[in-house]
Amino acid sequence: MTQFEVSKGGTATATEAAIVAQDVEKWYSNGFHVLKGVSLTVNKGEVVVLMGPSGSGKSTFIRTFNALEPFQKGSIEIDGIPLTPKLKNVDAIRREVGMVFQQFNLFPHLTVFENVSIAPIQVRNMPKAKADEIATQLLERVGILHQAKKYPGQLSGGQQQRVAIARALAMQPKIMLFDEPTSALDPEMVREVLDVMRSLANSGMTMVCVTHEVGFAREVADRIIFLADGLLVEDTTPAEFFNNPKSDRTRKFLSQILH
Amino acid sequence: MGDEFTLGRIFLNLLIATKWTIILSLIAFVFGGIVGFLVMLMRISPIKPLRFLSWIYVEFFEGTPLLLQLFLAFFGISVVFGINLSPLAAATIALTAFTSSFLADIWRGAVEALPKGQWEASSALGFGYFKKLRYIILPQAVKLSIAPTVGFLVQVIKGTSLASVIGFTELSRAASQINNVTLKALLVFALAGAIYFLLCYPLSVWSQKVEQRLNQQT
Amino acid sequence: MGYTFDFSVVWDNIGLFIAGALLTFRISLIAIAFGLILGIIGALFRTSGNRILNAITLAYVEIIRNTPFLIQLFFIFFGLPKLGIRLNAEQAAILSLSINFGAYSTEIVRAGVESIPKGQVEAAMALGFKPLKIFRYIILIPALSNIYTALIGQVILAVLFTSVVSQIATEDLTFAGDFLNSRTFRSFEIYFTVCLFYLAIVWIIKGIGYWVERRFFEFAKYSRR
Question: What is the spatial distance between Cα A143 and Cα A160, in angstroms, rounded to a whole number?
Answer without folding.
Answer: 11
